[in-house]
Amino acid sequence: MDLLVILAPLALYTKMGTFNIFSTVLITLFFKGLLELSKSFLDPFGREGYRAHNIRVDVLVSEMNFGASSRWTNAGDALPSDLLKPPNIGQHQAISTDQIPSPTMRKYQSQEGEEEDESDWMSQVASGGQSPRRDYGVNGKSEYDDSKPQRQDNESDGVLWL
Amino acid sequence: MAEYDPDGLWLWTQWSGTIREMTFSNVIFSLLWSIVVDLYTYHHYTVYLIAAAAVNGGDPGELIQNLSWVSFEIPHSTDPIIDTLNALNSLWEYQLQLTVFTLSFFVNHAYQYWRNVYFCTRAIQGRLNDLCMLVTMGARRSAKYGDINGTIGYQTNLQLHPDDNIVTEKNDSRDSKRLVSDVTRLLRMSHTFFWASTPTHSDGFGDVHHTLGGIVGDDDLELTKDFDPSQFGPILMSQDGLNMLVRRGQLTENEKQALIATGLPPSQYPFILLEWAGIRCVDAFESGELRGGPGFEENLFKYFTQCRAEYFSIGDFNSGRMPMAYGKHCVISATTKSTWSHRKLLFLIQFNLWKY
Question: A152: burial class by Cβ within 10 Å (0-12, 13-18, 19+)?
Fold first, then answer.
C-alpha cells in the first residue's frame, strides 16, 4: 500500500504530467483511507489507537445496568392484578351475555374460600385505600399455587373482560 | 456506534472519524512527494533541453527564458527519464490491480470482524436481559406485596405492618423478591466485571480523573484520586474496588470474601458471578421461589450457557482476529507488492539506466 502510494507520482507522471499531484492525493485518500478504515475495524475497542469506530463499553455497561436493575424488575414488580386474577364482575366492568359467571369463575369462587377477603381487598384498592399486605405463602395458601384454578381463555364462555 | 445523517452535504462536512481525518497526514505527505517528483522531473527536463540545444547548435539562453513553470509537453518529450517512468507505470498498474483485490478483501473481512464483535457485545447484553426477564417472569408472586395498590409484586418473606410501617421477616425461607434482586445484581456485576477485565479504550484506558475532565474517579465512586487511570478496570476488581462495591451495595461482604477465597484471578470474577447466579436459580426452583416447568428451566439455563459462550467469544475474536486473511494479506501484499516489486523495480531501473 505504501509502495503503491509512493510510486504513484512517478508512475502517473508519464500520463498525467503535472496533474499527477492531484491524482496522487486522490489515490492516497482512497486507498490509504480504505486501509486505515480496515485497521480501525480490526480494533473495535481502541486498544491500538484507532478510536474512530470504537465500541463504547461504558455505554454497554450502563445500558445493561439499567436493564437488569430497573427495566425487568420494576415491570415484574408492578403487574396489574387483573392480568392474573379473574376480576369481580361489577368492580371490573365485565360484560356478560347472560350475567352468569363462567364455569371458571364459579369454580374459582367455590374453591377460593376467601372470597370475602378478596372482595374487601379489591374494594379498598378500588377506593384508593391501603391494601393489607399478607403472605399467603406462609400458610401454604399462596394465591397462584398450581392447585388454584387459573383463568383459561377457552373457558370464559359468554364473558368478555375489559 | 455513532449515528449519522445519510445526507450527502452533512457527510461532507464531517471530519472526526472519517477517512479524511485518518489519512490527513498521509495526503499531505503524498502532496509534498508529488511536488518533489514534479520539480525533479522539470529540472531533469530543462537540463535535457539545454543539453540537446547545446549539442544541436541551438541557443540555450533563449530556451531557458522561454521555459514556463508548467510544461505539458514533458510527458511527451524524448527525455530519457520518461522512458524510465513509463517502465514504472507498467509495474504500478500491475500493482494497482493486486492492491485493489487485496484491499477489497481486507476491508470486507475487517468490517465483518467488527460486526461480529459488535453483535457479540450486543448478544451478551441480550442474553443477560433474557435471563433477567425470565427470572422476573418466573418469580413467585403475591397480590399482597405489590408496591402499588392494584398490582401484584414478587412474593417476599418481609411483612409490612401498615399501622406503624415496620417491616418484619416472616417465618418463610422463600423470598422471590430477594431472588430477583440477587440474580439481577449478580448478572449486572458479572457484566461489569467482564468489561472491566477486558482491555478496552473506554473502560478507563483513555479516561482521566473527573477533576481533569474525565469520567472516572468521581467522589461518588469513592475512589482515590491518585489511582492509575490506565488500570481502572483491574482496580475495580482489586481489594479497594471490591470494598467500594460492597459499600455501594453492589456486592455483599460475604460475596466479596468468597470471590477472593476462590483463589482465581480477578479476570475470572465475571464467570464466578455468572455461575453463582445460575446456582441461585437452581436453588430457587427447589425452594419454589421460581415457578415453571422443565421447559422454562431448560430455557433459563440455556441462556446461562449462551451467555458464558458469548463472554468467551470476545476473547476468541481478540486472539484470532484475521488468521487466514492476515496470512493472505502477508503473502499477496508483502511478498508480491514489496519484495517482488522491489526486485522488479530495481531490475527495471537498472535496465533503463543502462540503456541511457
Answer: exposed
With beta carbons under 8 A apart, name residues in chain A contacting B101.
Answer: none
Assessment of whether the complete model's pTM goes beyond 0.90: no
- Put simply, the chain B residues between 48 and 87 with a CB less than 8 A from any chain A CB are 70-72, 74-75, 82, 85-86
- Whether this model's ipTM surpasses 0.85 comes out as no
What 3-state class would DSSP assign to B158?
Answer: strand
Three-class SS state of A149: coil
In chain A, what residues touch B345 (CB-CB under 8 Å)?
7
Q: Which of B37, B193, B307, B340 to mutate to test the interface with A (most CBs of A within 10 A)?
A: B37
CB-CB neighbors (< 8 A) of B197 in chain A: none
Q: Does A124 touch chain B if contact means CB atoms closer than 8 Å? A: yes
User: How does pLDDT run across B117-152, given as a tens digit for each residue?
Assistant: 999 999 999 999 999 999 999 998 876 665 566 778
Question: Which strand (E) or helix (H) includes residue B112?
Answer: helix B80-138
Closest by CA to B317, choosing from B123, B127, B131, is: B123
Give how far A93 is from chain B: nearest CA, Å. 15
C-alpha cell at A51: 478510536
Residue boundaries of the structural domains of chain B: 1-78, 140-290
pLDDT in tens, B23-77: 888 899 999 999 998 888 888 888 887 888 888 777 777 777 777 766 667 776 7
Placement of cell 456485576 in the chain: B189
